[in-house]
Specification:
The protein is an alpha+beta fold and about 450 residues long. It is about 40% helix and about 20% strand. The strands form three sheets. An eight-stranded mixed beta sheet has the order 1-5-6-11-10-9-7-8. A hairpin with a 5-residue loop joins strand 15 and strand 16. About 35% of the residues are buried.
């Protein structure tokens, strides 16, 4: 009995329409990255397990795909894992290639990552990230450029978004002020789930993680922010709340500088200072970002932040970096839901040559060659079959023009050009055809 074909849960096949749309997303993002001077690198799909473990927090470690050993080492613990994100491999790359690169190093990567997560809407086990980072500078110009990149990418894609921003120093200050400085990681992991599970469940998790009732009570003004408060007013309230925390006030100062740069450069992006934004990754030390689509019900579609010592774990301490990651798969879902993909992506082929016989096919091949040399995407139907079948093929691929070749057309050294949208037909020379297609 033949095996029924299938793929692992949380993964997907992509057909020609999906790939045209995905490449539209990748090309748009890549174009903006390049505009800001970032250059592309790639790293392997698998990394040594020691490179990955301990970098993503306790929950992240659980989601690592470990690769089973084979051969002589088959019974040993896995030595490798599929990459969980692109940032940690990037830090490893920077340290390993530090003699070959110039700092500050501006790089981008567009590659798949893997997480052993429970598949659901908007959450996959294999998905692409589009990462952009600058490392080797602690200037907040890095944060500004990432915000500008977010604005430009989503302007080009036509998606209305809100960028949520916070600072891990502010969160450390909050932990200090409520009397739980040693619970910083526990607090961030818990409040990062606020949107998903609500305030009561977050409070329960904080208690489970060892926070006292007094500390949980002191945290409530942060968890129950009033909506509609201006960013400047939030920062003023924070200054008062964190007045006895040096690290907390440092975070406020950094946020004030970032907002000053935003105002100076005329960024129009919808930006909200969100004190409950924590991002559960342990390596963030400064500004943290999340971007959400305003017109679609889906989670974060872009996220990232500042990390001051990620390279230190690989032997190069004190190198600060900042970066963000665009989730291509979620962006795809948003563009699909809102019907924002350009219609012309449905077909890359501009014209199909339909033929009636061997002589007509040979005649068409000369025209096809000329069109392709002129940069026009051209197909020729390979068999002399019923015209209905050939026209159906053109319709199925959304090809806008069909060139019909018969004896009359060959005698006049022309083709009959059919517009598949209007249905109009006209006899054209090669020169006229080139002009029509280029226009």
């Amino acid at each position: 009995m033949a095996q029924k074909p299938s793929i692992p849960k949380g993964t997907r096949d992509f057909g020609q329409v999906e790939m045209a749309r995905r490449n539209y997303i990748f090309d748009t993002i890549k174009g903006v990255f390049s505009l800001y001077g970032f250059q592309q690198i790639e790293t392997p799909a698998m990394e040594n397990i020691g490179t990955l473990m301990g970098k993503y927090g306790e929950e992240g470690d659980k989601l690592l795909f470990r690769i089973q050993n084979s051969g002589e080492k088959a019974n040993l613990a896995p030595e490798k894992g599929l990459r969980y994100d692109l940032t940690v491999p990037f830090a490893r790359y920077v340290v390993q290639h530090r003699e070959e690169i110039s700092f500050p190093f501006k790089r981008f990567q567009i590659q798949p990552v893997w997480r052993a997560d429970r598949p659901q809407k908007g959450r996959y086990r294999e998905f692409y990230q589009c990462d952009v980072d600058v490392i080797g500078s602690d200037s907040l110009i890095g944060e500004l450029e990432l915000i500008q990149i977010v604005e430009e990418v989503y302007r080009r894609l036509g998606i209305n978004v809100c960028l949520h921003i916070n600072n891990r120093k502010i969160l450390a200050g909050i932990a200090e002020v409520i009397g739980a400085p040693d619970k910083m990681i526990d607090i961030t992991v818990a409040i990062d789930k606020l949107d998903k599970i609500g305030v009561d469940a977050v409070n329960d998790e904080l208690r489970e993680r060892g926070l006292s009732e007094e500390a949980v009570a002191a945290l409530q003004p942060v968890l129950n922010q009033e909506s509609g408060i201006k960013n400047q007013d939030k920062m003023a309230q924070l200054r008062e709340f964190l007045k006895n925390s040096e690290i907390g006030l440092k975070g406020v100062e950094e946020m004030e500088e970032v907002f000053g740069l935003i105002e100076t450069t005329g960024v129009k992006l919808n930006i909200e200072l969100d004190l409950c934004l924590a991002r559960g990754l342990n390596y963030y030390t400064g500004a943290i970002f999340e971007v959400k689509a305003l017109d679609a019900q889906i989670g974060s579609i872009t996220g990232g932040g500042r990390y001051d010592n990620l390279t230190g774990i690989f032997g190069l301490p004190g190198v600060s970096g900042v970066g963000i990651s665009f989730g291509a798969d979620r962006i795809y879902d948003v563009l699909t839901e809102l019907d924002l993909f350009p219609k012309e992506l449905q077909s890359e082929t501009q014209i199909l040559f339909a033929t009636f016989g061997a002589d007509e096919l040979r005649y068409a091949l000369g025209w096809v060659k000329a069109l392709r040399e002129a940069g026009i995407t051209t197909e020729v139907y390979p068999e002399a079959t019923k015209m209905k079948k050939q026209m159906g093929y053109a319709d199925s691929k959304h090809i806008p023009f069909v060139a019909i070749v018969g004896g009359d057309e060959m005698a006049q050294n022309k083709v009959m050009l059919k517009d598949m949208v209007s249905g109009e037909q006209r006899l054209v020379s090669l020169e006229e055809l080139l002009k029509a297609l280029k226009s």
